[in-house]
Protein: DDB1- and CUL4-associated factor 11
Organism: Patella caerulea
Amino acid sequence: MDEESDLPSIIAYLIRSGQVRISSSDEALSEEDSGSEGEQPGTRDPTTGELTTDLSSLKSNFVLQDVKVKSGRFHPRTDERYNTKSLTELIQKREIGLSRHQKFTQGDLCVINSKFLPNRVRTVATYSQKAFCGTYSQDGNIFLSASQDQNIRVYKTDRSFKLLKTIRARDVGWSVLDTAFSPDGNYIIYSSWSDCIHLCNIYGDHEVHEALNLTPGEHSFCIFSLTFSSDNSEILCGANDGCLYVYDRESNQRTLRIESHDDDVNAVSFADDSSQILFSGADDGLCKVWDRRTLREDHPIAVGTFAGHTDGITYIDSKRDARYLLSNSKDQTIKLWDVRAFANEDTIRATKRAVSAQKWDYRWQQVPRRARKKRLLGDTSVMTYKGHCVLHTLIRCHFSPAFSTGQRYVYTGCATGSVIIYDLLTGAIVKKLDNHAACVRDVSWHPYYNKLVSTSWDGSLGLWEHRSSAAEEADSESEIPCQCDEDEESDIPERTRPSVLRGRRFGAMAKKVVVENSDLFKGLYD
């Protein structure tokens, strides 16, 4: 009897101490592998039993053909797959007239570039505190970096990675959280835990550092994401009060405050260069589409909603064609969305229930062992990418550049200190770049060259480039080791130094051709 009387007090003690947690039956079911309401199973590998990528939605979507053509994997007229695998074969076909107009197409160039993805890193900057943001300008000649040390650094990158200027950020709480270039490349904006965002110039003798007040109210306020409109007239912001803010640069005031989400708005983006369609993503697990021409504070109605994630959204990236966007989430997935396929009300409610059922904090806890692995019923996403880790901070994902890759890849930072590159059409991880000792929050791919910069919480910037075998031998003592895929070609020289082209069937015997940097590009683009 004494033991029975002590049982309630023991249970109460365990609950107070956190050693026991009471969960509802709905929550318990959501953590089990057995099916639950509002979910549909994925495909399992018969050998490992692990969930594999579901390609059913992708196969019926236009993005499949579009990316194949632009990345050189299908011929746009004959609909035939490219069989050429080496640069020497492409050069041979061009020279004997099998290539149209005896020149490489943009697809040919993307095929060539795909064989020489970044695989070696060198550290180009180190800071005393965590690095949060890093992005290339539209022309690739400037790189912008922001750190927790309250400094924003502008690097000149057209010839080398050289510090151009340092801007001391003002009114910073915790860290500078986001930055953006103006369309003309002459200004930058940044945000933090502050009622204001700040505008600074990059060039000129006269220093510009203006505070643009968003007048949010008396609560603690933060802008997590911001971007310029393509005509440079407006700035779009997402805030911790669940609202979108629009700042008009001509009138120098906030013109709109839209109640858009039920939780923090972590990411905003314009759909294309018209700047009429807006995207937003938030901690409520939803991505929403808005029409700038019909936005009204007294009637904030979204054009449509994407639902399918089971936890908050950390970042969104537009393909810049007004049709597709990516979302990165705390549910450890990236999803590809088509604006023609919105979620219905049942799926939206299922997403909200799944998000509200999450009992962990990604900022300091590990991913739950029994994380939800099943797709929500009604999820209209085209593709889901798994293999990276989203912890500690709002990790970002992007489409690879259109010019050099045909947007063939999706790349993201990772809490393990890696950069992950996915094949957009298969979901396979084509590269995992390991170097950093802490979380990689941001990654930026050069708009024209096969190089990218990773921004990490270990306080460093890593410049990743492709190093061919000849360059490896010359720099073997100074380079960080990296395992490359065995089936990858290494025939193309790095853009920054001479190398050797090894031909296989370029005549009766193999030949070696040394190509200088300028000659290589002259041959590729003529």
Q: What stands out?
A: The CA atoms of residues 21 and 93 lie 67 Å apart. Residues 15-51, 471-526 have pLDDT under 50 and may be disordered.
